[in-house]
Amino acid sequence: MNIVCLDLEGVLVPEIWIAFSEASGIPELKKTTRDEPDYDKLMRWRLGILKEHGLGLKEIQETIAKIDPLPGAKEFLDELRSMTQVIIISDTFTQFATPLMEKLGWPTIFCNSLEVAESGEITGFKMRIENSKLTTVKALQSIGYDTIASGDSYNDLAMIKASKAGFLFKSTDKIKADNPELPAFEEYSELLGAIKKALN
């Protein structure tokens, strides 16, 4: 039994924080898990910047409403889901992901949640589980699934390496250079072809 585990941002949809950085005119918010491997540190830093500028969930959700999946992402996902089970495993938050899941045809997503005050200020975040991507892949394996995984960032590497087959997709030159053993693709057709081979 196979199950494909995909990252969300950078793989199926644009990076939410980069889009919000551009919309809000705050260049520091461009930093993502491609730049900072420590997700906890990255999120605390982001929340500090939001507080400093008086920005909350509403402003971020307004930006997310204008984000569309990457060109070809929904077609790729539809085809993949016709062949096998697929779960999106993301370090994003339900409050960010839900409108994007609608645009992708409601695939299953495992992600985290934000703590939001009545004022709309994001006061904190609750991670679903520690090392969520690797932990989830190992849990799926423990109930009889062979996992096939793909992502673009530092926080995807453990899930990719722990899987029966794993691929980098639209990753950075540095991550690709540091992990030469991982096949790296730029096009959905290439990734789909590699996953099809791994399914057999």
From TrEMBL:
<feature type="binding site">
    <location>
        <position position="15"/>
    </location>
    <ligand>
        <name>substrate</name>
    </ligand>
</feature>
<comment type="similarity">
    <text>Belongs to the HAD-like hydrolase superfamily. SerB family.</text>
</comment>
<protein>
    <recommendedName>
        <fullName>phosphoserine phosphatase</fullName>
        <ecNumber>3.1.3.3</ecNumber>
    </recommendedName>
</protein>
<feature type="binding site">
    <location>
        <position position="152"/>
    </location>
    <ligand>
        <name>Mg(2+)</name>
    </ligand>
</feature>
<keyword id="KW-0378">Hydrolase</keyword>
<feature type="binding site">
    <location>
        <position position="155"/>
    </location>
    <ligand>
        <name>substrate</name>
    </ligand>
</feature>
<dbReference type="GO" id="GO:0005737">
    <property type="term" value="C:cytoplasm"/>
</dbReference>
<keyword id="KW-0460">Magnesium</keyword>
<feature type="binding site">
    <location>
        <position position="9"/>
    </location>
    <ligand>
        <name>Mg(2+)</name>
    </ligand>
</feature>
<dbReference type="InterPro" id="IPR011863">
    <property type="entry name" value="HSK-PSP"/>
</dbReference>
<feature type="binding site">
    <location>
        <begin position="90"/>
        <end position="91"/>
    </location>
    <ligand>
        <name>substrate</name>
    </ligand>
</feature>
<dbReference type="GO" id="GO:0000287">
    <property type="term" value="F:magnesium ion binding"/>
</dbReference>
<feature type="active site" description="Nucleophile">
    <location>
        <position position="7"/>
    </location>
</feature>
<dbReference type="InterPro" id="IPR023214">
    <property type="entry name" value="HAD_sf"/>
</dbReference>
<dbReference type="InterPro" id="IPR050582">
    <property type="entry name" value="HAD-like_SerB"/>
</dbReference>
<feature type="active site" description="Proton donor">
    <location>
        <position position="9"/>
    </location>
</feature>
<dbReference type="GO" id="GO:0006564">
    <property type="term" value="P:L-serine biosynthetic process"/>
</dbReference>
<feature type="binding site">
    <location>
        <position position="133"/>
    </location>
    <ligand>
        <name>substrate</name>
    </ligand>
</feature>
<keyword id="KW-0718">Serine biosynthesis</keyword>
<keyword id="KW-0479">Metal-binding</keyword>
<feature type="binding site">
    <location>
        <position position="46"/>
    </location>
    <ligand>
        <name>substrate</name>
    </ligand>
</feature>
<comment type="pathway">
    <text>Amino-acid biosynthesis; L-serine biosynthesis; L-serine from 3-phospho-D-glycerate: step 3/3.</text>
</comment>
<dbReference type="GO" id="GO:0036424">
    <property type="term" value="F:L-phosphoserine phosphatase activity"/>
</dbReference>
<dbReference type="Pfam" id="PF00702">
    <property type="entry name" value="Hydrolase"/>
</dbReference>
<keyword id="KW-0028">Amino-acid biosynthesis</keyword>
<dbReference type="InterPro" id="IPR036412">
    <property type="entry name" value="HAD-like_sf"/>
</dbReference>
<feature type="binding site">
    <location>
        <position position="7"/>
    </location>
    <ligand>
        <name>Mg(2+)</name>
    </ligand>
</feature>
